[in-house]
């Protein structure tokens, strides 16, 4: 997090840069099949913020959107494939930013686990 009260992040290639206004309403790990497949990991990890505070500072034209379900939209960099945002059509006032794209790394708590019954057996224990 920055001194200005914003989160900052970018994709792997650096083509997309964004900032998002605080506060984080909650952070989560989502174990649904779609998040697991998109992230290639045990879970998708997100910070949920107000969509009005999200500003694409660089590379807006590099962002592609995939409608993964009737109510879910997933944004990613079309150059490097980095997962950037998840948006719900049912809650357009919120956007979920992927924790792994934040610079510096997210220092707040992760309060929620979504679809916890889908946690893979191979995930790290701890």
From TrEMBL:
Residue span(s) of domain CENP-V/GFA: 7-123
Keywords, ordered alphabetically: Lyase, Metal-binding, Zinc
Protein's UniProt name: GFA family protein
PANTHER family: CENP-V_GFA DOMAIN-CONTAINING PROTEIN-RELATED, GFA DOMAIN-CONTAINING PROTEIN
Protein family membership: Belongs to the Gfa family.
Lineage: superkingdom: Bacteria
Gene3D superfamilies, A to Z: glutathione-dependent formaldehyde- activating enzyme (gfa)
A GO term, aspect molecular function: carbon-sulfur lyase activity
């Amino acid at each position: 997090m920055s001194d200005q009260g914003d989160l900052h992040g970018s994709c792997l290639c650096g083509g997309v840069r964004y900032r998002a206004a605080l506060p984080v309403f909650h952070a989560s790990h989502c174990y649904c099949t779609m998040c697991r497949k998109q992230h290639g990991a045990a879970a998708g990890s997100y910070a949920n913020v107000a969509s009005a505070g999200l500003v694409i500072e660089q590379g807006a034209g590099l962002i592609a959107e995939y409608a993964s379900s009737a109510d879910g939209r997933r944004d990613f960099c079309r150059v490097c494939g980095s997962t950037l945002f998840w948006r719900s059509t049912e809650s357009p006032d919120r956007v979920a930013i992927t924790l792994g794209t934040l610079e510096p790394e997210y220092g707040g708590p992760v309060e929620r686990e979504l679809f916890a019954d889908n946690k893979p057996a191979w995930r790290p224990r701890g």
